[in-house]
Each structure stands twice: as C-alpha cells, then as structure tokens.
Amino acid sequence: MLVAPDKFKGSLTAAEVAAHVAAGLRRAVPGVAVETLPVADGGDGTVDAAVAAGFERREVTVAGPLGHPVTAAFAVRGDTAVVEMAEASGLRRLPAGTFAPLTASTHGSGELLRAALDTGARTVVLGVGGSATTDGGAGMLTALGARFLDERGEPVGPGGGGLADLAEADLTGLDPRLASVELILASDVDNPLTGPHGAAAVYGPQKGASPAEVTLLDDALTRFAAVLAPGLADRPGAGAAGGVGYAALLLGARFRAGIEVMLEVLGFAGALARAGLVITGEGALDEQTLHGKAPAGVAAAARAAGKEVVAVCGRLTLPPETLHRAGITAAYPLTALEPDPATCMAQAGPLLEHVASRIAERHLT
C-alpha cells in the first residue's frame, strides 16, 4: 500500500494525512505493508513533503511579504534544493485579516533562493503558489541583485504598485551563480503574466485587490514586462504566484507542472513500483483537482504504471465518471461520516483512520 496524499488545507499536513491513513490500514489489516510518501504540487506544504521524503530542512530569516522578518524553510538533499516561495511570501505570512495587494513583495523569496545557492545546490526547484504578492517577482529579483528604478533613478516602491513608476531595469548585478544552476519553476497554473487571464485579473482578488487595484496591477505588470522582456509575458506559467513565474523565466527557469516535478524529486516512481494499491487525496476533490493538483498527478502516474488508485478527501464534488477518467477508482470523503464541516476538519485524523479501515476492507480483504 502506497499512501501519497497532499495536505488537507486548514486541517492536516500531508505527512499527518498519510500517518492517519496508514494507522487505519494497519488497524484493519495487521501486518499489511504500508509505505507513506506525502506529496505536494509546488504550493503550501512543498518543503514539508520534501523533508518527509528525506530532504534536510534548513531555516533562514528573510523578509516577509510586508518586509517584517520571518523564519522560512527550504529543503536540501545532495545538490538539489527545494524552495517554496510561500514560506517567505505566502498569504499565511500576513497578519490575520490583512491584505496588501499593492505593496506585498517577494523579496524574501529571493533571499530564500540565495540561501539555496549558498548550499552549493546545482538544481533548485522553485515551488510557487499561495502567494500574497502580485509584483511580477520584482522583489525576488531585487534580492538577487537586480535594480528597478523610476525616472529619477531612484528605486521603485515595493510590490506590484511600485512597478507603475518603473522606468529602468538593471540586471547586471544578478547573482552570477544563477547562470550555472538548473532552475525549475514548479507550478500548478499556466496563466500568462497579464491580461484577462493574467496574475492580477485571476488571482488579485484573492489577495485583497479591488477592481480598481486589479487594473492598476495589470497595467504595472504590463509596464514591468515591457521594460524587461515582453516576449516572456505570454509564456505558460509567467502569471503564477503573482508573476513570480515571469521572474523565474527571466532567470532561465524551465516551467513544469508542479506535481510532476515533485513526484520526481520525492522518488515516487520507486515507491510506485513496490505498490499494489495507491491511496492519494487532498482536502477537497473538485474541479480544481483536475487541473494540475497533486491527486490528479499521482493518479495519472499510477494509471500509467497499471496501479489502482483510490482517494481520501474532506469534501467530494466530482461524480464517479469524472473520477474514473482521472484514474481514481473510488473516493472516500470524510463528510460521508461527519457532515458538519467544522467538526469534520477538527476530527479529520480519527475520521481518516476510519475511512482507511473501510478502504482496507473493500480493497484488500
């Protein structure tokens, strides 16, 4: 049994989900061989998944999205580093109830990248998602040595709002180590930087941007791209995480689906080869799951290997035929046991163990 879930957001980490599922399986079938491999798609929980797979956790103090110092983690194994930009620049780094759509900066994400370079990493996976920012990655580039100046030759202000004053970009000071590192942009979205499907229009409202601020940010990102490299703005992934994808592409990153990258980094293929049944899952199995989320990636890889996949989740909105097309034989939502969402989230661990016992009874005995 291979247990390879993503997190249940707001309730359990991916590692905790995997542990509870494994406990339920072993309770139902004592002696059953269970291997756990928590997964992530590049967003929140990516570093935790890497650490659970054997990477070393490193911590460093960097600037949060509002400039206040935060302790952020990245992961290292050999010459590969996994950097999760949400660790430094994520929504969860903002004070409760606070948004800063115009001024939130990715400077701390650049400091995280620099710390990864300091380890001697030759491959850096930059997982993006869950960001509080819409600055096109300008803050990240600044932390790596770039300068963004207004018409007076002064640095522009932080965040996407500051880019409205951009007149000149100086990239000559970028960290030279970037040229010799394989940088992989790992994301579950492929939006362009600007326009109706861009970073500001699609994701700005989630970060507190009003309609007027969305327009301002989109115009500022358009100006940013015009000064730097207009041709990159329409590349898939440029709009990921408020435009951090654009900055990564500017640095020569290769864009790949986050879950595909993480499955490789975590050694999923070897674990899959040993498995007879795969259990994946996340907090909500819904339409978003089908667009690059971790369970869909796990199911696709398992189906290609001829392995059966079942899923656990907090909430299920996908019909059986859609699940089957995604390679998932059956899904087991916790709400089938506990319909109250608050209770379901609070008791997710014990509920998962109960569901896992049911999976064992149906699929193993």
Task: Outline the structure in words.
The chain has 365 residues and is of the alpha/beta class. The chain has 2 domains: 132 residues, 3-Layer(aba) Sandwich (Rossmann fold), CATH 3.40.50; 214 residues, Glycerate kinase, domain 2 (Alpha-Beta Complex), CATH 3.90.1510. Helices cover 36% and strands 19% of the residues. The strands form 3 sheets. A 6-stranded mixed β-sheet has the order 3-4-5-6-9-10, sandwiched between helices. It has a 5-stranded parallel β-sheet with strand order 2-1-11-12-13, with helices on both faces. The protein has a two-stranded antiparallel ribbon with strand order 7-8. The protein is elongated and about 75 Å long.
Provide a compact summary of the structure.
This protein has 365 residues and is of the alpha/beta class. 36% of the residues lie in helices and 19% in strands.
CATH class of the largest domain: Alpha Beta
Count of individual domains: 2
Q: Would you identify the CATH architecture of the largest domain?
A: Alpha-Beta Complex
Q: What proportion of the residues is helical, as a percent range?
A: 25-40%
SSE arrangement, N to C? EHEHEEEHHEHEHEEHHHEHHEHEHEHH
Structural class: alpha/beta
Shape: elongated
Give the radius of gyration: 21 Å
What is the residue-mean pLDDT, rounded to a whole number? 95
Query: How much β-strand is present in the residues?
Result: 15-25%
How many distinct beta strands?
13
Could you tell me the CATH topology label of the largest domain: Glycerate kinase, domain 2
Fourth-level CATH superfamily of the largest domain: Glycerate kinase, domain 2
**Major beta sheet, strand line-up:** 3-4-5-6-9-10
The low-pLDDT segments are none
The largest sheet is: 6 strands, mixed
Number of helices: 15
What's the N-to-C terminus distance? 13 Å
